[in-house]
């Protein structure tokens, strides 16, 4: 059974979804109005909300949640590599490609990053351009900047 909860954060509304006792989606809605949305808070969603709140307060640097993102084998490998990027640090798309043993796959890493269904918990915001510039983030570059700024200020 799927359950979801909407929370308000410093970057806007976030919807966290659980299915089969794992987190399957974290969606950023910024200032969108979410109407007719059925919420059911479960013990796992309460834990996820608490961890996300602590992350935004700067008191949590590593999430401890069962995650189950749906994607291809390649996407899964990228998403696992993203979880290895330490809090407050960044890697380029090329560095992530090399870390999964596919050094020529920087563009494919970018596409997998773009399709990450579990934002923040799988920290795709920590991936930057080879020149150090903030590029490509589904939630918007301004949100990526806020998340990286938060992590740098607490580190």
From TrEMBL:
One cellular-component annotation, GO: cytoplasm
Parts of the chain that traverse the membrane: none
Catalytic activity reported: a 6-O-methyl-2'-deoxyguanosine in DNA + L-cysteinyl-[protein] = S-methyl-L-cysteinyl-[protein] + a 2'-deoxyguanosine in DNA; a 4-O-methyl-thymidine in DNA + L-cysteinyl-[protein] = a thymidine in DNA + S-methyl-L-cysteinyl-[protein]
Keywords: Cytoplasm, DNA damage, DNA repair, Methyltransferase, Transferase
Protein name: Methylated-DNA--protein-cysteine methyltransferase
Chain's role: Involved in the cellular defense against the biological effects of O6-methylguanine (O6-MeG) and O4-methylthymine (O4-MeT) in DNA. Repairs the methylated nucleobase in DNA by stoichiometrically transferring the methyl group to a cysteine residue in the enzyme. This is a suicide reaction: the enzyme is irreversibly inactivated.
Alphabetical list of InterPro entries matching this protein: MethylDNA_cys_MeTrfase_AS, MethylDNA_cys_MeTrfase_DNA-bd, MethylDNA_cys_MeTrfase_DNAb, MethylG_MeTrfase_N, MGMT, MGMT_N_sf, WH-like_DNA-bd_sf
UniProt subcellular location: Cytoplasm
Organism encoding this protein: Clostridium cellulovorans (strain ATCC 35296 / DSM 3052 / OCM 3 / 743B)
């Amino acid at each position: 059974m799927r359950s979801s909860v909407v929370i308000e954060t410093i970057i806007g509304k976030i919807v966290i979804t659980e299915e089969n006792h794992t987190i399957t989606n974290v969606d950023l809605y910024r200032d969108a109005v979410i109407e007719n949305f059925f919420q059911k808070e479960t013990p796992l969603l309460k834990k996820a909300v608490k961890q996300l709140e602590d992350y935004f307060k700067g008191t949590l640097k590593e999430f401890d949640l069962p995650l189950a993102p749906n994607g291809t084998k390649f996407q899964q490998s990228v998403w696992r590599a993203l979880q290895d990027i330490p809090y407050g640090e960044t890697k380029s798309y090329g560095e992530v490609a090399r870390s999964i043993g596919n050094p020529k796959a920087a563009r494919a890493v970018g596409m997998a990053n773009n399709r990450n269904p579990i934002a923040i918990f799988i920290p795709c915001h920590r991936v930057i351009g080879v020149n150090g510039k903030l590029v490509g983030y589904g939630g918007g570059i301004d949100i990526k900047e806020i998340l990286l700024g938060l992590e740098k200020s607490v580190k």
